[in-house]
Amino acid sequence: MKHEIIPESNNGKQVDLLEEIELGTNEDAVGIYAEARERLLHPRIWKPMTGTAAADFKTPGVTEKAGDTHVSVGDYISIDIPAPGSSAGDGHDWVRVEKIEEGFDPDTDESFAMTMKVCENPVQPEKGVAHFFAEGASSTFIITRKGLKVTASYHGRNETPNLDNPTLGDKIRNAVVAVGAMAGVSELQWKAFLKGLLAVHHNY
Question: What global pTM score does this model have?
Answer without folding.
Answer: 0.90
